[in-house]
TrEMBL record:
It is an enzyme of class 5 (isomerase). GO terms for molecular function: phosphoribosylanthranilate isomerase activity. Keywords: Amino-acid biosynthesis, Aromatic amino acid biosynthesis, Isomerase, Tryptophan biosynthesis. Residues 4-195 form the N-(5'phosphoribosyl) anthranilate isomerase (PRAI) domain. It catalyses: N-(5-phospho-beta-D-ribosyl)anthranilate = 1-(2-carboxyphenylamino)-1-deoxy-D-ribulose 5-phosphate. Gene3D superfamilies: Aldolase class I (3.20.20.70). Its EC number is 5.3.1.24. It holds the Pfam family PRAI. One of its GO terms (biological process) is L-tryptophan biosynthetic process. The lineage of its organism: Bacteria, Bacillati, Bacillota, Bacilli, Bacillales. This is N-(5'-phosphoribosyl)anthranilate isomerase. Pathway: Amino-acid biosynthesis; L-tryptophan biosynthesis; L-tryptophan from chorismate: step 3/5. Belongs to the TrpF family.
Length: 201
């Protein structure tokens, strides 16, 4: 069964909505240029509110590696999602110093973008539309056989989540914009998306 991650938690009420909808993962964005950015203090508060059976994923874009390692080792996040140009040495160091799972993300415009991460030493790879949290899908025809667990992201919403799961059987769906109304997480959409993922997976 494909899991589901809802990214971009920004308010305590988003966490309470997640606790009701019960996705497998929620995402905290630590990229300070982004509208979903949250501080370490907020992330600590959100983690304390989050049900223990929902894992928290920290998304980073070329962050200082010590910050990623600290958040993992302090238990603020359970997995790290690397969305920038982090190289294999960076990925390996995070894994060795934390023994926590790492997701290596790539924005997909051409086949080479997938090739870039396909043999990464990370635990998971994540295929997304370039940029992150754009609400746009990328060309799914670029996905050929992938023999490792992967997250599928980019413009997934209530209209296409079922076809995404049926066509690719990803380890997990990952979405953000599709669970929002007017730029804020929408509890009804979160609930509906999780239901669709469970029904389809
Ligand atoms: O979510 C962000 O704002 C973000 C910013 C910078 C890098 C990555 C970011 N998000 C990564 C995610 O995991 C999103 O869920 C993914 O990009 C899909 O977003 P969407 O197309 O809005 O569903």
């Amino acid at each position: 069964m494909s899991k589901i991650k809802i990214c971009g938690m920004q308010r305590a009420e988003d966490i309470l909505a997640a606790n009701k909808a019960r996705p497998d993962f929620v995402g905290f964005i630590f990229a300070d240029f982004d509208r979903h950015y949250i501080t370490e203090k907020q992330a600590r508060e959100f983690k304390s509110l989050l049900s223990s059976d929902i894992k928290s994923v920290g998304a980073f874009v070329d962050a200082p590696i010590d910050h990623v390692i600290k958040l993992l080792n302090d238990g603020v996040i359970d997995l790290a999602q690397l969305h920038g140009n982090e190289d294999e040495q960076y990925v390996r160091t995070v894994m060795e110093k934390t023994h926590k799972p790492v997701i290596n993300a790539t924005g997909v415009k051409k086949p080479e973008d997938i090739n870039k991460v396909i043999s990464s030493c990370s635990d998971f790879i994540l295929l997304d539309a370039p940029g992150g949290c754009t609400g746009n899908t990328f060309d799914w025809n670029l996905i050929k056989e992938i023999h490792r667990p992967f997250f599928l992201a980019g413009g997934i919403n209530v209209t296409n989540i079922e076809s995404a799961i049926n066509r690719f059987h990803p380890y997990s769906i990952d979405l953000s914009t599709g669970a929002e109304t007017d730029g804020k997480k929408d509890p009804a959409k979160m609930m509906e998306l999780v239901k669709l993922a469970r029904k389809t997976g």
